[in-house]
Amino acid sequence: MKKTITAMSTATAIVLGMATVATADTVTIYSGRGEALVAPLIKQFEAETGITAEVRYGSTSEMATLLQEEGADTPADVFWAQDAGALGALSGQFAVLPDGFSDDVLEIFRDNDNKWVATSGRSRVLVHSTERVAEADLPQSITDLTDEKYKGRVAWAPTNGSFQAFVTAFRVAEGDEAAKAWIDGMIANEAKVYRNNGTQIEAIANGEVDYGLVNNYYLGRYVGANADYPVAQTHFGAGDIGNLLLVAGAGVIEVSDNQENAQKFVEFLLSPTAQQYITVEGNEYPVREGIIPDPTLEPLQTLQEISPKVDINAIGDLDGTLKLLGDAGLL
Amino acid sequence: MSLNTTFRGAGRRSGPSVLLLIPALLVGIGTCLPVFWLVMRALEADPAELSAIVFRQRNLLLMLNTMKLVAVVLAIGTAIALPAAWLVTRSDLRGRGVVSFLMAMPLAVPGYVMAYAIIGMSGYYGFAKHWFGITLPPLRGLWGAGLALSLYTFPYLFLNLRSAFLGMDPALEETARSLGQSRASIFRHVMLPQLWPALVASWLVVGLYVIGDFGAIALMRYEVFSYAIYTQYSGAFDRTYAAWLSLMLLAVTVAALFAQHAVTRNRRFSRTGTGSARKAQPMPLGRMRVLAWGFVALVVIASLGMPLLVLAHWMRLGLPQMDWGHLGQTALATLGTAGPAAFLTVLLAVPVVLLILRHPGPLATVIDRLAYLGYATPPLAFALAMVFFALQAVPFFYQSYAILIFAYVMSFLALAFGPIRMGLLQIGARQEEAARSLGATPLRSFASVVMPRLRRPFVAGGLLVFIMVVKELPITLILAPTGYTTLSMNVFGRTNEGMMAEAAPFALSIILFSSLFVGLFLKYESKSDRQKAESSPR
Amino acid sequence: MTDTPLLSVRNLKRQFGKAGPAAVEDVSFDLAPGEILALIGPSGCGKTTTLRMIAGFEPPDHGAISLRGRDITATPAEKRGIGMVFQDYALFPHMDVARNILFGAREKTPQTVARALSMVGLDGYGSRYPDELSGGQQQRIALARSFAAEPSLILLDEPFSNLDAALRHATRREIRALLKNAGIGIIIVTHDQEEALSFADRLALMRDGRIVQHGTGQQIYDRPVDAFVATFLGRTNLVPGTARGELCDTPLGTVRLAAPAEGQVTLSMRPELLELQAAAEAGNGRVTGVEFKGHDMTYWVDCAGREMQVDVMNGPRLGEGAAVDLSLRGEAVVLRDPA
Lengths: 331, 538, 339
Known about the structure:
Chain A is an alpha/beta fold. Chain A contains 12 helices and 9 strands. The radius of gyration of chain A is 22 Å and the shape is globular.
């Protein structure tokens, strides 16, 4: 027992003594994107630049909340977020990027205030069961889902950031009344609430529901593991709000005294190497030209044609959306 | 104040020594910080929107759902743990050691894995589909969440009840039998009253856990109060309203703490008899043996078999190029914080529990309740409060292991209280007094007479904390030094991206890793005081 | 006996909780070296609390304790040099007998263990563990452990209550001899009057936190101050009477008093001091019950509507219903209880 106590005390002392040691050439990244996807990219970045990257992984929301709490004392240099909602919430803490920084980024993916850059694009899609849904049953518009024939068959995830961004876009494009009517219609039609995108897809495979409203890059992972996975994805009719184009992105923290390395990292994310990696490994859309598209996805060109014309900069009113969802009893 | 009064039996007027007061104060401050922080954030609220958020009818519904869920989890958990604890302590069931191990093991299963397991039993990938070709709709909602939560929290009830059974003098049951009481009546009138404090204390711990859990509940699509808090933080990035909701949750906790205090007050459960308690004569199960084994098998299959199968299934889906070195490193890194955190937690728990037991009074009661409050504080709020205070008070320590471990200790302290309280009560104050009448100082009396016999509860409490830390997520995510990753962070990072196969080895490691310690603990626990004294170096 | 008592206890008071009566109130006594004092009384009378205050486990609210003239009221238990043997012995279960004995010993040598064990007649038990010992053996080890610490005073809290009757008598005699030889002071707490009378030199009888009477066993037995003492220590007959100086009129006729008194009084008459004679005619009593106990007999006699016990060694064998003459040999004791 005594030995154990001594050993444990020593271990404790060692651990407590180890504060984070900052070396000269580092960059500290808060990543709301998962380690499995990000870690190889980081390695590549370190190899290319000689900068040591300290990465803090977590969910986008937790990292955003952490950044808010840390405020001016944050040790972070860069925040890489999963969705534009978090980027918008933190825009006050981001530094304005130098002019021309986003020149390579496609017009549709740019932030007007130049506070953050999109690192990948993704599209809202409809996933459906291949067993219980016929081609003819597929809805042309997301508003069709309030029809009687979809009663109790549709999954959604009202707490999910991408879904909320979609609702905001809906409000911008068609007005608050229309958005509210659609949400009420969905509730009346017994849409089933899930936590996020992945659980909706699994619910379809499990036979709980037949349709789900998710981002485009989730299904690839299930189908990649099992080609017979009984779920497929599709878009609504051209221009439908349900086909909204969204982004993941990164920003440089304004209070960081390491602006140079931080910008280098964000630049790296926009580089062809990184973009190609995200496109293939993440099943997402690149934000620049000259990248070989993911073969499982519809070409970005097509996507741009069918996606609604909503400026990503206009969908910043998250509060209004949360109020709407809250009043409907979804939050 | 002097050392001399430290361990006095009932020294009312002479207060407790600084040796007990300083740890107690530390606990008081540590667990109050999040409440301060929550109040501070809450005061930033805009009154108009505030009333809309706080006085929503939906909150009532969520609170009601929370209560229902707590009731279901406690009912299922007790229905499993009570018979299991009886079987391994009072019956002649063979392999009681192994059964104990299997009953304690599910504690190591992370909540989201258990929830996945239950969902995975049916559905597309499910057992039913795989073996019988039918796709069953999975168990979700209240019963799904209740089952998932109870299947990995019942071991906590089991371990507490088991040690309560072990500490109970079998002579009482024998007396009752000689008085012509039926087994059922003995259970109701003799055993249950003695088990009651252990039962209520573990209900409290499990109940508070259920109130704060989010992982399993989210997967089970059952909307409870923690859901509302999570939504405020993650959906709305709104700390102010999340703070209000957290404070509402804490108000419920305080009510629960008062209730617990009321139902267990004035109950004495140290043995009044003399000498050492005998071992209970095992009760022959007879024809019930088959039933007992069936029960054990069912519980083991549900609580361990299912999650392991699901993990195996994920891994079979295609084990990617696993970086085994990384896995090993992560496991070591996890040990590096969970070990010290568990050790420091029990080390802190001993003086605090001593204060509570030996110096009962308002101070002791407040500190005791505060420890539970710390445990019940939503972990995300706890972690953010630590961020705030660390940056304000000790910026040098921010994102250091020190702050991370401090947060673990404060948030899991209550877990160590149960075993240590039970241990100290069963040892009683008499032996210490005997030592002092032989001329030993209070410290020496405690060190030579009480501490050696406290080893079992010490290890038990430490283990509970250790396992919780290994599974813990929000506090680790927020407070860990940048670049530090644990097994559970890896599981989370991968499942979050839908990479189940990649997550599986890490989840499996959590279970295997913890099971090593569970085994070690039970092996240790089964020895008597004497055997331990003999095997330890003199 | 020396001039300074070994232990001196003055006006001890202890109250648990704010309301209600004190557990111990105004308790004072002295103990000479080598003397054995028994604190006796019914359960809850405050005797154990008194003992714990002397040991140092319970702080007195008021009063002083001194050992060999030195005030120890505020001295911590371990510095008092007072040994205590608990009712449940409190042997350390994780230590063997030898380590138990050596725990408080001044000299930590094998000889100390051997000496302590031989003193209690348990030679060779050093390597046993407490749970391998019988109750009596545990009791004696607890005593040996206390001895080894060489205290000047040992406190015994109901030490024999867990032993069976036969073992209790033997152990008690052995231990008394042992303690007397060692010449240290003893305070024993018990509720067993016979134990107190046979074990102690002096007794202090407690009720409701106060010492009601103290003195030698014989003094208290022969001259109880009140009905409580008279009935707690032995059996007695409580008889009303009208006192006039040294004499008193009672249903038994006129009896002599141990001390003069006047007016209505309550008298104590021990059964063995009463005499029975077969009455020629009505007599002053009638036998209502006979209990044959071998070497003596107890008669239950109805005397003017009052039931009296009479112990008779040898005398006439009377049957139930016999008319008898009841008389007192020696003196009746006036109790301070109201008549």
